[in-house]
Amino acid sequence: MKKSLKNLPNNWINRFENYFPDNNNILNKVEKAFLIEKRKPVFRINTLKTDINKVLEEFKNNNIKITKIDYLINSYLVENAFENEIRKLDCYNNWEIYLQNISSQIPTIILNPKSWEKVLDTCSAPWSKTTQMATLMENNWEITALELNKIRLEKLKYNIKKQWINIVNSLQQDATKLSWVFEENSFDKILIDAPCTAEWRINLNNEKSYHFLSRKNTLTKAKLQKEILKSVIPLLKSWWELVYSTCTLAPEENEAIINFILSQYKDLEIVKIDFDIPYKIPALKKWWKQIFDSRVSSSLKILPSESTEWFFIAKLKKK
C-alpha cells in the first residue's frame, strides 16, 4: 500500500495541513520528500587541510559527478553516487571533505563568523557547524563549543583534531545554566542550533522514523528552547548577532519561540534573512489562535527535498 502523510500518528496530517494553510502544492512536495529513501550527498571542502582543486580532481578521477552549490561556500552536491561510495575516497578518510546537508550549512553562513570574532556554539553536537565555523574563520580567534553529553563531547574533540582545527574550546556544559560559567556580553556572535523534535527525520516508509511525534514532545522541546535562549541572550554583546535554528517545522519550536523572545527582550531586533535558496517558504503569521509579531516573517524556512532537510532559521541582533 502506498504510504502518505495520513500514515502519521494521531492524525498528525492536520498539523501539516496547517503548516501550509494556503498552498496544498507545498504539502504534496513535503509528502514526496518524506518518501525519499536516500538524499543526494552534499559535502564541503575543509580548506584548512587541503586544496580545493585536489579534491575536485579526486572526484573526477573516480567518475563521480558533482555540482557546485553557489549559495554555500566550497560545497558540492553529488549527482551520481551515494554516501557509502564517498566514504571510500581518500579525501573523505583524510578529513579533507565533510558530509553535511545543505540546510545544515545555512545557519553558519547566515551567522557569518569572522576570523577576529569570539563565537559561542551553544548546542554543538553533532559538531558539523562547529567545524564549519572554524573553517570560515580560517582557524583564527576563538570558538567556545558546549555539549552536555560527555561521550559526544569527546567525539567533538576527536573531530576537530582530525580536521586540524585549533581554535575550539570545548566544554561539557548545560546550555540552560550559562550565567554560572560566562559573564554577560562575552561573545560577538552566538549560534543556537537548538535541540528539537527533528521532523526532518520522517520517512513514511519507516514507522520508527516518526514514532516520536507527539504534542507532549513538541511542548517539552519548546520549553527547553526558551530556557536555552534565556540563558544565552545575556552573553551576547550589544550590536552583535545571534542565530537560532532548528531542523523541525513545528511552529511551537520556531515562530512561537521567536515571537516570545521579541516580546520579552526589547533590546533584541530581528534581522531579515535574504537568502537565495530553492525550497524556501514564508514563516507562518499565526498558529491556531496565536497571532505572531509581524517581524517573525523575517525568518527563513526551508522545505525538505532530495537535497535539503526541514530547517527554520532566525537572526537576532542586540541593540
Helical content stands at 25-40%
CATH superfamily of the domain at 103-318: Vaccinia Virus protein VP39
Q: How many strands, what sense, and barrel or not for the largest sheet?
A: 9 strands, mixed
CATH C-level class of the domain at 103-318 is: Alpha Beta
Number of strands: 15
What is the architecture of the domain at 103-318 at the second tier of CATH? 3-Layer(aba) Sandwich
**What do the pLDDT scores average to?**
93
**Unreliable runs, pLDDT <50, ≥5 residues?**
none
- How much of the sequence lies in strands comes to 15-25%
Instruction: State the order of secondary-structure elements, H for helix, E for strand.
Output: HHEHEEHHEHEHEHEEHEHEEEEEE
Q: Which fold name is given in CATH as the topology of the domain at 103-318? A: Rossmann fold
Number of helices: 10
| Gross geometry | globular
